[in-house]
Amino acid sequence: MQANSGTGARSPSYCRYTRPGNNPVDGTASLGLTGVEIDFGTGKPRTLWRYDGLKALEPLRANTIDVLLSSRDEPGATLFVQGRAFAASLREHAPHLSARATRWRRARLWLLLIASIVGIVTATMVTGWSPLRFYAGMLPESWRARLGDAARDSMTEGYSQCVDANGTAALARLSERLSKAAPEGVTFDIRVYDWPLMNAFAVPGAKIILTKGLLDKSDSPDEIAGVLAHEMGHAIAMDPEVGMLRSVGLAAGLEVMLGGTGGGLANIGVMLAQLGYSRSAEHEADVEALVLLKNAGISPKGLGSFFARVTKMESDDHSSGPSGWTWLQTHPPAKERAKLVRAQLDYPSTPALDFQSWNELKEICKTTAKSTATKHGDG
Ligand SMILES: [Zn+2]
Predict the structure, then answer these.
(1) Are residues 159 and 106 in the same domain?
(2) What is the pLDDT of residues 193-220, one digit of tens each?
(3) Domain count, the chain
(4) Which domain holds residue 7?
(5) How far is the CA of 119 from the centre of ligand 1 (A)?
(6) 3-class DSSP assignment, residue 27
(7) Is residue 86's pLDDT more than 50?
(8) Which residues contact 16 (CB under 8 A, 6 or more apart)?
(9) pLDDT for 152-186, tens place per residue?
(10) pLDDT at 248 over 80
(11) Distance from Cα 254 to the centre of ligand 1, integer Å
(12) Is the predicted pLDDT of residue 321 greater than 50, yes or no?
């Protein structure tokens, strides 16, 4: 008979078969050609559990005296079989149940895990790819917008938004010209704040903040266009979102370590401003800026010249204080930038804004509105 043709365990072994919700049934188990055959006595239908679908609660060893099996053929059911001969013979029919196979499977899982970690670390180092960037891309638009509002509020706290009507219209013209050159689906929200420090930054949700200090220091609309295009580059790459996720991770980690109660998350905007971006993220933002400027028909020279001029100005005039410090400190050196800009082929361009619009933009802080952040401060 087929049922008894296997090696060893020729005589059926006592077994106890249990199905969920039923009383256990006693019977005999024998090793067939393709699986374990369970016999419940004369006249009752036999059950076959195929070898490749078997699982053992404990891996089968040379000294195993009984086995508890389950099967893909009957999920939930278990089969307890007594007998050293049965166990030894089952190990030959279903080698994947042996202790050695189980160890190898576990080792393989660890190896796979280690390989994945090494892979992620290597990919991060070699290409700048980061899992955080992947997660940032999955954040819903509304979350990114809310994160951006919170970050902008905390970063601009105490400074008023510049809202002069003509200046705002000029800013909208410049922003529209560059936005049209940007990938579809990105809507920028650009605001100027009455803030003497020369600074520009992007926060989540493609929101960009420019300061009066920056406008005061620039000589031409092309320079502002260059800075703006660079920040748009950060926004398109979702660098602020990535930075924020990293800060959240850091803050959460710190809080866990210090046993805090959520205070770290409140300072996220400040942390974001302090952390800055990686060197490669800065380079990418410059490259994206050059693409935007080219598509918009604006000369890339402003991107390079501005930094060179401001850097020189800062080093010549120490009395001016640290007004340009923040932006310059967190951004690629002017020399590197100038090189990148010089490498561009010439293309036809027109000034980023006409003379009148440029003057209107420079005067945007003539009228200011209380920033949303101070609203809940002093009422
Ligand atoms: Zn940057």
Answers:
(1) no
(2) 999 888 888 988 999 999 999 999 899 9
(3) 3
(4) 2-97
(5) 28
(6) strand
(7) yes
(8) 24, 25, 26, 27, 79, 80
(9) 888 888 899 999 999 999 999 999 999 998 888 78
(10) no
(11) 26
(12) no
| CA 252 to ligand 1 centroid distance, Å | 25
Counting every residue, how long is the chain?
379
Measured in Å, residue 318 CA sits from the centre of ligand 1 at 24
Q: What is the DSSP secondary structure assignment for residue 323, as one 8-state letter?
A: T
Q: What is the 3-state secondary structure (H, E, C) of 226-283?
A: HHHHHHHHHHHCCHHHHHHHHHHHHHHHHHHHHCCCCHHHHCHHHHHHHHCCCHHHHH
Rounded-to-integer distance, Cα 341 and Cα 303, Å: 8
Report how far ligand 1's centroid is from the alpha carbon of 142 (Å). Answer: 24
CB proximity list for 126: less than 8 A, separation 6 or greater: none
Q: Which of 47-61, 76-90, 147-161 shows the lowest per-residue confidence on average (mean pLDDT)?
A: 147-161
Cα of 282 from ligand 1 centre, angstroms: 5
Task: Indicate if 119 and 238 belong to the same structural domain.
Answer: no
The pLDDT > 90 percentage for the chain reads 39
- Are residues 317 and 277 part of one domain? yes
- Inter-CA distances, 15 with 20, 32, 86, 211, Å: 16, 15, 11, 81
Task: Give me ligand 1 centre to Cα 231, in Å.
Answer: 6
- The per-residue pLDDT for 319 is 45
| Predicted pLDDT at 262 | 47
